[in-house]
Amino acid sequence: MSDLPDISSMKLSELKSELKSYGIDSSTFAEKSEFTSALQNARNTMPRPSTTYREVEQPKPEREEKKSSSSSSSRKPSSSSQRTSGSSSSSSRRPAPTPAPTAAAPAPPTTNPINIKKLTAMRSPVTAFQQIKEHPSQNIIGERNNSFLPGSPFSFSLHGSVQESDSAIIRIPDGVCLKINCASVQRKAMDEYLKQKGSIGVSLRLSSEENPEMLPIWTFARDRSSGYTMSGLGLRVCGPRTVRLLAFMEMGYRSGQSVDVHVFGSVSLNKDAFD
Prior knowledge:
Elements: H1 12-21, H2 32-45, H3 69-72, H4 85-90, H5 113-122, E1 126-134, E2 139-148, E3 153-158, E4 160-161, E5 168-172, E6 176-184, H6 187-194, E7 201-208, E8 215-221, E9 229-230, E10 235-238, E11 241-250, E12 261-269
Parallel strand pairs: 4-11
Antiparallel strand pairs: 1-2, 1-5, 3-12, 5-11, 6-9, 6-10, 6-12, 7-8, 7-11
Helix pairs in contact: 1-2
């Protein structure tokens, strides 16, 4: 792919144009990093569109068949000596045969709009994006950015924070569903975090477009939790929709130490949208 432009140097309009050529819906993207991540994933996992960087050569019209030699050749001059009326009538030209009508080409099949929508959804990934900030300066010190096509497992590590603005943005395109089944924390990291004075634990929180309030789904508490993994969450969200996930540190975050919460699930097509 040496003839492809470098993604980091492409303009936003160019990113949108190439994503569209792959059939990827980018209308839900807000950050440029989301465009670049989705395009890099498309280049790595999908066949390259044949009309992205070169025009398809139009087929040249077929040349008309040459006329038959009998119709194109000039008529021979009649003999100078005239024959009798009986012989002249028998030598008159016969009319040219009428060509058989050409069969009409079959009409192209009608495109099913549902199939087009389904094909677009198959190429549209769920994206998860989180910026890691330093507090209280709010300087960005890193980011986590992943994309998941339908049919793939979903896994994302949420960086712990006490600021709701540090939540991860999960964008789900039209015709696609995200299911989150379980969440976990690493035992060693959590044990180190709980050594801090006043530390209680960490909670997984969710907000949506319909309800922007960050509400806890699961909480790992020092004295109440018996395991480091929670299964059976059963959270299913279908697009087009944007949700936010946050690993909220329950107290003890003053030293700057935090714990990641890992979420797991799957990405699939929304079958109800194509019935």
